[in-house]
Amino acid sequence: MKNVIPFSKNVMLGNDARYVMGVIENNQISGAQPVSKKVENLLKKKINPLAKILLTPSCTHSLEITSILLNLKPGDEVIVPSYTFVSTALAFYMHGAKLVFADIKLDTLNIDETKIENLITKKTKAIIVVHYAGVSCEMNEIMKIGNKYNLCIIEDNAHGLFGKYHDQKLGSIGHMSTLSFHQTKNITCGEGGALIINDLNFYERAEIIREKGTDRSKFLRGEVDKYTWVDKGSSYILSDILSAVLLYQLELLKKIQTKRKKIWDKYHKNLNYWCNKNYIIQPSIPSYCKQSYHMYYLLLPNEKLRNKFINYLSKNQIIAVSHYQPLHISPFVKKRSIIKKDNCPITTEISKRIVRLPFFYNITDKQHLKVINTILKFDF
Hints:
The chain has helices at about 15-25, 35-45, 60-70, 85-95, 140-150, 205-210, 215-220, 240-250, 255-275, 305-315, 330-335, 345-355, 365-375; strands at about 50-55, 75-80, 100, 125-130, 150-155, 165, 170, 175-180, 195, 290, 295-300, 355. By secondary structure, it is an alpha/beta fold. It folds into 2 domains: about 15-250, Type I PLP-dependent aspartate aminotransferase-like (Major domain) (Aspartate Aminotransferase, domain 2), CATH 3.40.640; about 255-375, Aspartate Aminotransferase, domain 1 (Alpha-Beta Complex), CATH 3.90.1150. The strands form 3 sheets. It has a 7-stranded mixed sheet, sandwiched between helices. Strands 7-6-10 form a 3-stranded antiparallel sheet, with no helix packed on it. The two termini are about 30 Å apart. The mean pLDDT is about 95.
């Protein structure tokens, strides 16, 4: 509908098509071609110059590669937050892991680092953290726990591209991390992702896994005279057509992030009095964190009021949405009796109260003002 303000909208900045046509005209539309290499190098420069970065078709695929790299055996456990997108858990379940769900904290909605250690057993292999809304988890404490028990720490950084924890870029802290370039993300190519390998011991095998389990990359570099099947894997390579869209957006990164910061700040400032008056919680950003400006959410007092609020906005042609449904009480998990009781009460509570407001680069000042003014008129 023409006058509806959507929840999200893909970023189009003008020359996207020209960059794509350049790839097509150069007959380099498959993956791991020059444009993809350029994007990988740009990301490496901006996130961790010492890391290796591999573009993939999605963040989900990147997580799948990390799960293969863990060499999971039956009964091995992986700790994941329940409050996350299904891919964070599914990638490991598909490769044999027993899922151990962790609860979140009320302030940042990130995994509660104080509860992780009690979930660790002799069978634990990894801890997966999600930087919710682009605000960092408490990585110093989590890395200490990982080192103490010799566990792999994987950052699901789908929300947090270019965010910081103290002076460290999100995605550069764990042994490995993953990125998403889905349509809803700050930087997007529709569908796409990346695997960041900070512990270079994982790199050689990751490269093979991404190339269908073959050593084709070595062959292309002239390191072997022919390539063959040497390991597990799949086709985890992003087309250069999509990489071209990423390249253009990365070159305009400052422009994109400046606009998103302006949107976030305007929500936060203009809704502050209204939120305090009506016992509504705004996002909390620790002083030592630099967020990515991925989303803006509110926590309403209860589910009934949250649903009423969403319906009210919808009637005013504004699309706001809830967010994740807790994985630990999902139909998939319940059916398989993966857990016996609700051990993530904050996750369950938050999922009933949260609402995400329209947030996208192309939102106009007029649209943004309409959303804010409509919210301020909500009748409790």
